[in-house]
Amino acid sequence: MRIIFATGNAHKLVEIREILDELSFQADLMTMKEAGIDTEIIEDGLSFEENAQIKARTVAAALPAEYADAVVLADDSGLEVDALNKEPGIYSSRYMGEDTPYSEKNAEILRRLNDIPKEKRTARFVCAVAAVFPDGTEETVRETIEGKIGYEPRGKNGFGYDPIFYLPDLSCSTAEISPEEKNRISHRGKAFRAIAGILKR
Ligand code: IMP
């Protein structure tokens, strides 16, 4: 099976390749760029699922004839903080501006939660993955990891909002666990495994 992933993010490609390997799933996986597609994608959906579908459909519509038999995958993810009305949500990477360092974005979220007690600091990472098949049919999955916003940034692993995303069961943040452990429990790990299971069928 040939799979084209609608991402420019090489790290995501590595993650999904590892998950396909775990499932002994033979697939020829490449980024949209490797398939020669550089179409602009306008992510104007109102949910993670819609944005993943928009990306997958845009790339599927731009596939060169030689890739007509490929499945297109796209993902969209972000952080929902309940006490902030689910912000930053689908705007997670754009929150406070795309180029603002995460140290500042995380400090701002902690500041906004200053008066919020522990039990109301619930949050989750969400990941939606959409697949568009060569016959035009689609599948979309959504997975989450539940946690709480901590009181200070902790840990050096991961990226983005990981240092402030606290896992009560493990008593640490997602920036304090190994990449392998994060992959096992994360929204993205779960969503990639779910879509890989569907592709395998
Ligand atoms: P996208 O899925 O590449 O659009 O990423 C959305 C944004 O959500 C990222 O830039 C991060 O800000 C945030 N995000 C998504 N997943 C994670 C995660 O596992 N850890 C920390 N931040 C995340």
In short:
The protein has 201 residues and is of the alpha+beta class. Helices cover 29% and strands 24% of the residues.
Please characterize this protein's 3D structure.
- The chain has five helices and eight strands; from the N terminus they run E-H-E-H-E-E-H-E-E-E-E-H-H.
- Strands 1, 2, 3, 4, 5, 6, 7 and 8 form an eight-stranded mixed β-sheet that branches.
- Strand 5 and strand 6 form a beta hairpin.
- Helix 1 crosses helix 5 and helix 4 packs across helix 5.
- The protein is globular.
- The termini are close together.
- The mean pLDDT is 95.
- The protein binds inosinic acid.
- The site of inosinic acid (IMP) has 14 residues, from strand 3.
- The site of inosinic acid has 14 residues, from strand 3.
How are the elements arranged and paired?
Elements: E1 2-5, H1 10-22, E2 28-31, H2 48-61, E3 71-81, E4 87-88, H3 102-112, E5 122-132, E6 138-149, E7 165-167, E8 172-173, H4 179-185, H5 187-200
Parallel strand pairs: 1-2, 1-3
Antiparallel strand pairs: 3-4, 3-5, 5-6, 6-7, 7-8
Helix pairs in contact: 1-5, 4-5
